[in-house]
Q: What sequence folds into this?
């Protein structure tokens, strides 16, 4: 009996090793004045296991993730090779779930021109800079700064230049999902969209922000797409707008939710499943360190979210009735991005006749959004 179990286990292990792909070698070369090539020599890699994506900014990078693969280059857990030309360095590390990740660091201005995945080779063709390269000295000093700041866990590369804060406004529900229904038939999805559009209008009037909506019409957007919009736009603040409902009709007032502590592991799982790269030095990274960096990012994000929630509640108090225990915590999916401060704002109870009438009023919604705009101004003027 026991022997049988061992044999099954052994053959399982053997199968895993036999079919896992392998990265055997990596070469980078400047093939022309404005072109460089990176070749990964591989074996048994299937196209479906390879994900290549680009991170632009002042430190452009190409990330190559290969699922179900090994590499001798990663024997010690990580890999780093530096170059003199437009490919600055190539770093590699082992990720959870048998995925290996290589990051190709490029000079500013360089970008991925084309990629090719074959069973024996992955090739990246890189269009290199046209601008005058920095002098050695300048480059060396930049390197130094990067080294020092790599101790600080910044989850994403943000341009160092002053930029307008990016506000992502998420109108809850939409399309086939009407959300809560009022006693007089008001639909939550209409209230949230109108409020979102009004908030956008007011924010743009200040000239201080870049504003992105997750939806601007009556359509349904998947939850992870709402998060993706926030991340793709490098959001500095994410506000999801909803209206509450309960069984009884008495509850009324606005409330603000931030992410509950107990939802943090879920947030971490999303980081892995959606391939969110945290800005960490992979050459020094182990899974543990990666986890710590996600933890730190989450803690920082939670602090920021709470700060904004507190400001928002004090401003909302001037324009509407507040639900008791106004600041609440929950594990709502749209609050899960570990590196985007986020709140979910419940404007009032659509199930309460007074709130329903108010939520349906243009004037009331305008006043509410003036409070939100004022909160955003205060939050970003610190
Ligand atoms: Zn809702």
A:
């Amino acid at each position: 009996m026991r022997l049988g179990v061992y044999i099954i286990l052994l053959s399982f292990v053997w199968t895993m090793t036999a079919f896992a792909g392998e990265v055997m070698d990596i070469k980078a070369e400047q093939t022309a004045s404005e072109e460089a090539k990176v070749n990964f020599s591989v074996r048994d890699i299937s196209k479906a296991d390879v994900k290549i994506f680009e991170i632009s900014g002042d430190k452009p990078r190409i990330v190559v993730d290969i699922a179900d693969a090994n590499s001798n280059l990663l024997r010690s857990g990580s890999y780093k090779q530096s170059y003199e030309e437009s490919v600055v360095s190539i770093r590699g590390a082992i990720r959870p779930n048998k995925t290996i990740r290589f990051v190709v660091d490029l000079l500013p201005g360089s970008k991925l021109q084309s990629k090719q995945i074959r069973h024996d080779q992955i090739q990246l063709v890189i269009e290199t800079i046209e601008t005058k390269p920095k002098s050695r000295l300048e480059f060396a000093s930049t390197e130094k700064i990067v080294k020092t700041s790599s101790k600080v866990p910044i989850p994403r590369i943000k341009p160092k230049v002053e930029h307008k804060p990016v506000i992502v406004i998420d109108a809850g529900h939409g399309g086939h999902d009407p959300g809560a229904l009022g006693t007089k038939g008001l639909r939550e999805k209409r209230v949230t969209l109108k409020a979102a559009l009004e908030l956008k209008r007011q924010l743009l009037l200040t000239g201080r922000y870049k504003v992105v909506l997750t939806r601007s019409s009556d359509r349904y957007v998947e939850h992870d797409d709402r998060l993706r919009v926030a991340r793709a736009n490098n959001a500095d603040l994410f506000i999801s707008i909803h209206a509450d409902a309960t069984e009884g009709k008495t509850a009324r007032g606005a409330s603000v939710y931030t992410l509950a502590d107990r939802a943090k592991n879920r947030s971490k799982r999303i980081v892995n499943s959606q391939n969110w790269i945290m800005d960490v030095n992979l050459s020094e990274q182990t899974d543990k360190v990666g986890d710590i960096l996600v933890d730190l990012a989450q803690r920082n994000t939670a602090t920021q979210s709470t700060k904004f929630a507190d400001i928002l509640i004090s401003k909302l108090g001037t324009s509407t009735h507040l639900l008791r225990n106004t600041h609440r915590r929950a594990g709502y999916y749209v609050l899960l991005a570990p590196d985007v401060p986020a709140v979910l704002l419940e404007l009032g109870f659509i199930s309460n006749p007074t709130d329903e009438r108010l939520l349906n009023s243009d004037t009331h919604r305008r006043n509410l959004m003036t409070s939100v705009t004022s909160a955003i101004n205060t939050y970003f003027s610190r």
